TrEMBL record:
The lineage of its organism: Bacteria, Bacillati, Bacillota, Erysipelotrichia, Erysipelotrichales. Residues 1-26 are annotated as: Disordered. This is DUF4358 domain-containing protein. The chain crosses the membrane at residues 30-53. Keywords: Membrane, Transmembrane, Transmembrane helix. Pfam families: DUF4358.
């Protein structure tokens, strides 16, 4: 049998007949439909995989190693370490919060450069630190808005990266490098 025929029974005559027109499709239609199915499958697969890949990193890295990795890509002259009293003053986070925190900034009020690295244990601690960092950021933006537009812009473009049990807040010129060093340290790639 030649051609693309289908057999069916004619209800009026009861005879089997060939129907040539039932399966006629334009050339390329099947390829287009198969491509559409494959494209749809890839789209839904991507929707499922991307959130799985981008899950926050819960790290077992030591706090000091994460600190060292981030500080190594920055000029130490711009980021001297602040003591617990300064952490309490600027970030409103005390030792009783149960959070390991490193805070680095110049004592110069005209500089917006800051690094905050924090390690926490619970979701509540993560939310508390994030909220206080956001409050600090907005306060600094408000302060710089009147007289230091470049410092204001630096603070507005600050990096805040919250992972599973670590946080990095960074203002400065090496945001991408600092974030990459942070993520590498969390993954154990020191």
């Amino acid at each position: 049998m030649k051609g693309n025929f289908t057999r069916f029974r004619n209800l009026k005559t009861g005879r089997q007949e060939k129907n040539k027109s039932r399966n006629k499709t334009k050339p390329g239609t099947i390829l287009w439909m198969n491509g559409l199915k494959v494209g749809t499958a890839i789209f839904f697969l991507a929707l499922w995989i991307i959130p799985w890949i981008r899950q926050p990193i819960v790290s077992s890295s030591e706090f000091s190693l994460v600190e060292q990795a981030v500080l190594a890509v920055n000029d130490p002259a711009f980021y001297p370490a602040m003591n617990d009293q300064m952490v309490r003053k600027y970030l409103n986070i005390g030792p009783q919060e149960g959070v390991q925190i490193g805070f680095y900034r110049q004592s110069d009020a005209f500089s917006a450069r800051e690094i905050v690295i924090a390690k926490f244990d619970t979701e509540q601690q993560a939310e508390m630190i994030t909220e206080r960092i956001e409050t600090r950021k907005q306060a600094q933006i408000d302060i710089y808005s009147g007289y230091a537009p470049e410092q204001q812009a630096m603070m507005e473009n600050a990096l805040l990266d919250v992972q599973g049990n670590y946080l990095l807040f960074y203002t400065g010129d090496a945001a991408a490098q600092s974030d990459q060093a942070f993520l590498d340290a969390l993954r154990g790639n020191h």
